[in-house]
Amino acid sequence: TTGVVTFLTKSFSPFTATYEKDSWSKHTATTYATPVDTANKVVTIASAEELALFAKEVNSGTSYAGYTVNLTEDVDLSQYAWNPIGKSGKPFKGTFNGQDHVISNLYIKGTQSNESANNYHGLFGNLNSPAVVKDFTINNATVNGSLYVGAVAGMAYTGKEISGIK
User: CA separation (Å) from 83 to 14, 30, 121, 156?
Assistant: First the structure.
């Protein structure tokens, strides 16, 4: 995740190197393996890289209102720090169906400092009506932030449902 590494050598004084986990926003898929079905308004996500691409698209202003996003495989996010799906002014408004899959090792770096970079933290940062989020498990989540923070969603103003989540 993040950490400190101390090296002891014979030719150098001890020193400490601090590192931070890279961000998923730098490691997105370039496209979905299953093309977006615009006629039926369906997005299929089968990997962590595709989930990161989806987050990037929502955070760029595509709300996916009227779309159903189906997760078809378990996703392990341990490799990088997560960027929430949706942020202030750019919420997710579609339906996310986890289809009983597992999203594991969610890590969001943040502090309790009241700055915009520490707000809207969760798998989904900002959900807005008529968003629906359902049917998946989050296993091993570490979510840090200041305002609007949760494992599933930081801000969940859906007017609909958030259900079937473990």
Answer: 34, 16, 8, 16
pLDDT at residue number 3: 61
Ordered DSSP codes for 9-71: -SSS--EEEEE-PPBGGGS--SS-SS--BTTTTEEEE-SHHHHHHHHHHHHTT---TT-EEEE
Give the tokens for residue 55.
């987050």
Q: Determine contact, residues 77/106, Cβ cutoff 8 Å.
A: yes
DSSP 92: B
Q: Are 68 and 104 in contact (CB under 8 A)?
A: no
Alpha helices, DSSP H, located in the chain:
48-59
- Single pTM value for the model: 0.85
Whether residue 91 contacts residue 126, with contact meaning beta carbons closer than 8 Å, is answered with yes
At residue 155, what is the residue type?
Answer: M
Q: Which of 142, 154, 152, 78 is nearest to 116 (CA)?
A: 154
Helix or strand run (H / E) with residue 88: none
DSSP 8-state code for residue 129: T
Confidence of residue 1 (pLDDT cuts 50, 70, 90): very low
